């Protein structure tokens, strides 16, 4: 994979981590959603979808894959080669964001980086990313505190599980696979509805692995659901307002057919109010999810090691550490012996 770590840490493949990472890089109104299905209905329900990020166990290049070099017409695709191994996740996210700059407000940092690197060849774009302090600092802000640090550096071996991120993104009416370990974007052909076509491409990729390999992760880079839902509520409020005015006018009309129309309009208003309540509930769910993301990310970043050290030290000084350790061991043995509940 990449040459070395280059002062980039490993970060967790998690929608909350990736959503906050994108926000901290300055992009607006974008979130990441974990997917559990590749069917078209699931993907379209999240529209607009800017791109997909696929995580899988890397096993080397497959002979069944399309050509890995630049293809005709791919010059307008922003593609960067992966120089640093641990930057893989952030590079996959940027592969989506920087190719969807017409639909996403990138913010100053990413706009400046894209403008600086867009005319560079893929390897130099990768090097530019490696040396971008602002992006690296955001990436490294998600490092997990480690109890033991090692300066040892060694290449991955066949016994190591090495995972890799790649991106799928529509550009210019064609579906592209962006894998930083290749020489250029992989063109999967023309597409009129890429969300209908990408599932088959990823399923084919997954089928190349043994049936025992189930460690895959698929994430969608989408527009902020809260903003989309709020826009729908605003449109619905306008429709309800028009119907209320229509209802008021009908109630002033004494004609017999107006009574039937009143019932019809009242029914429409009731249906819209019910849909509106459903949308408001979905906004609450999204707000709760973002609040959980913030809490989880704060816990990820917080260093609990000094607190644990002081707690154990205090127990040792009071002479209670050894007995507590033995109790914990016995409890662990009891749990191991207990029959598993199905």
Which helices and strands, and how do they pair?
Elements: H1 15-24, E1 30-35, H2 40-45, E2 49-57, H3 88-97, H4 107-117, H5 122-130, H6 133-140, E3 163-171, E4 174-178, E5 186-190, H7 194-207, E6 217-223, H8 225-251, H9 256-301, H10 305-318, H11 321-337
Helix pairs in contact: 1-9, 8-9
Account of the protein in words:
A six-stranded antiparallel β-sheet has the order 1-6-2-3-4-5, with helices on both faces. It is α+β, with helices and mostly antiparallel strands. The longest helix is centred in the C-terminal third of the chain and has 46 residues, at 256-301. It has eleven helices and six strands. Mean pLDDT is 86; it is low at 66-70 and 153-161. Helix 1 (15-24) crosses helix 9 and helix 8 packs antiparallel against helix 9. The chain is 50% helix and 12% strand. A hairpin with a 2-residue loop joins strand 3 and strand 4. It has helices at 15-24, 40-45, 88-97, 107-117, 122-130, 133-140, 194-207, 225-251, 256-301, 305-318, 321-337; strands spanning 30-35, 49-57, 163-171, 174-178, 186-190, 217-223.
Give the CA-based shape.
globular
User: Care to count the β-strands?
Assistant: 6
Major sheet description: 6 strands, antiparallel
Q: Percent helix among the residues?
A: 40-55%
Could you tell me how far the N terminus lies from the C terminus, measured between alpha carbons in angstroms?
A: 40 Å
Low-pLDDT segments, ≥5 res: 66-70, 153-161
Tell me the number of helical segments per DSSP (H or I, 4 or more residues long). 11
Average pLDDT taken over every residue:
86
The radius of gyration over CA amounts to 26 Å
Percent range for β-strand residues: 5-15%
Series of H and E elements: HEHEHHHHEEEHEHHHH
In the sheet with the most strands, the strands line up as 1-6-2-3-4-5
Q: Which structural class do the helices and strands define?
A: alpha+beta
């Amino acid at each position: 994979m990449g040459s070395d770590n280059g002062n980039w840490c490993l970060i967790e493949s998690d929608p909350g981590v990736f959503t906050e990472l994108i926000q901290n890089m300055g992009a607006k109104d974008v979130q990441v959603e974990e997917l559990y299905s590749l069917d078209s209905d699931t993907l379209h329900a999240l529209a607009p979808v800017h791109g997909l990020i696929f995580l899988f166990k890397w096993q080397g290049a497959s002979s069944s894959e399309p050509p890995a070099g630049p293809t005709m017409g791919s010059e307008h695709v922003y593609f960067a080669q992966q120089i640093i191994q641990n930057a893989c996740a952030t590079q996959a996210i940027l592969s989506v964001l920087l190719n969807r700059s017409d639909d996403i407000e990138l913010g100053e940092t990413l706009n400046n980086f894209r403008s600086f690197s867009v005319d560079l060849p893929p390897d130099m774009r990768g090097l530019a990313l490696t040396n971008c302090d602002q992006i690296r600092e955001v990436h490294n802000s998600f490092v997990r505190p480690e109890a033991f640090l090692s300066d040892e550096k060694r290449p991955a071996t066949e016994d190591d599980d090495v995972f890799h991120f790649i991106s799928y993104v529509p550009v210019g009416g064609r579906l592209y696979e962006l894998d930083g370990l290749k020489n250029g974007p992989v063109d999967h052909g023309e597409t009129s509805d890429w969300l209908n076509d990408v599932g088959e491409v990823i399923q084919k990729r997954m089928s190349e692995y043994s049936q025992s390999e189930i460690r895959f992760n698929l994430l969608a880079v989408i527009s902020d659901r809260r903003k989309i839902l709020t826009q729908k509520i605003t449109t619905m409020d306008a429709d309800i307002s028009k119907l209320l005015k229509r209802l008021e006018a009908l109630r002033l009309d004494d004609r017999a057919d107006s009574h039937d129309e009143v019932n019809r309009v009242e029914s429409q208003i009731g249906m819209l109010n019910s849909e509106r309540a459903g949308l408001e509930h979905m906004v609450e769910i999204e707000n709760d999810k973002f609040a959980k993301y913030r809490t989880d990310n704060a816990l990820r970043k917080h260093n609990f090691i000094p607190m644990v050290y002081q707690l154990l030290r205090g127990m040792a000084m009071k002479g209670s550490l050894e007995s507590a350790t033995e109790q914990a061991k016995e409890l662990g043995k009891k749990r191991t012996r207990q029959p598993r509940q199905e």
